[in-house]
Amino acid sequence: MANERVRVRGLSIFRPIIYGNTATVLTPKEREALPSPDHTHKWTVAVRSAASKDGIDSVGGADDLSYFIKRVAFKLHDTYPNPSRTIDKPPFEVSETGWGEFEIQIRITFIPESGEKAITLYHHLKLHPWTASGDPEPIPPLDVAMKMGPVHSWQYDEITFNDPYQNFLTILTNHPPTPLPKAKRKPVPFHTSHPASLEASKGGVPEFTTVMEKEEADRLEEAKKTVLKQHAEMKLHLEEKERELKRLQKQLGEA
């Protein structure tokens, strides 16, 4: 039992997830039945496994993530009743209606065996269709948006566990994630589609693939290089300013 709480040094293991939302336009009849008739959309924000279920029209969700995620807390806009929604069993998602877009805070808490701290993600709720130009504006009329189909906005991410405890590592290895398909079988997600791609404006249910996984990894690596470069430039700038400050202080002392 003692060995279970020993960390496996030098080892990293990750689990692919997606987080984001799907939104559809409410029909006039659906709007009439709501307490707030000004609400124009129904939407679902979720944290799911990256792989999608075969034959199921939903983004991701092939795997049950509760083997390593204990709960997910979604912080909605303060205008919603009970804006902090905690989901402690799968599916880790919240469905609501509304009319405006806003940022949602997503806090993921892992099972106790992990010994890991909770992580916080942020997602901007997307209600309005992306256009072929890649610009969400202008917002189309509701009847036009309804014909365009659901709006999807999902982000791929990998949760990495470094030096995991032995018992947590065993749990993870006993639940390998469903592999992503090598090639797309459905429309590409809107947020990663090429601005000139007409396919991005046709709606449908997107699916993440190994190709997109690599593209996302390359994008993150490029962003990391940019941050490191900016950090080095700022360090040089700061060192130059410090030398200038010392020179001025010396001049004042000699005056």
TrEMBL record:
Gene this chain is encoded by:
YAF9
Question: PROSITE patterns from the xrefs?
Answer: YEATS (PS51037)
Q: Where is the signal peptide?
A: none
Alphabetical keyword list: Activator, Chromatin regulator, Coiled coil, Cytoplasm, DNA damage, DNA repair, Nucleus, Transcription, Transcription regulation
Q: What is this protein called?
A: Protein AF-9 homolog
Q: Tell me the InterPro entries matching this sequence.
A: YEAST_sf, YEATS, YEATS_dom
The answer to whether UniProt assigns keyword Coiled coil to this entry is yes
Localization of this protein:
Nucleus; Cytoplasm
Task: Describe the task this protein carries out.
Answer: Component of the SWR1 complex which mediates the ATP-dependent exchange of histone H2A for an H2A variant leading to transcriptional regulation of selected genes by chromatin remodeling. Component of the NuA4 histone acetyltransferase complex which is involved in transcriptional activation of selected genes principally by acetylation of nucleosomal histones H4 and H2A. The NuA4 complex is also involved in DNA repair. Yaf9 may also be required for viability in conditions in which the structural integrity of the spindle is compromised.
The protein's assembly and partners: Component of the SWR1 chromatin-remodeling complex and of the NuA4 histone acetyltransferase complex.
Domain comment in the entry: The coiled-coil domain is required for assembly into the NuA4 complex.
> Out of the domains of life, which is the source?
Eukaryota
| Family (UniProt) | Belongs to the YAF9 family.
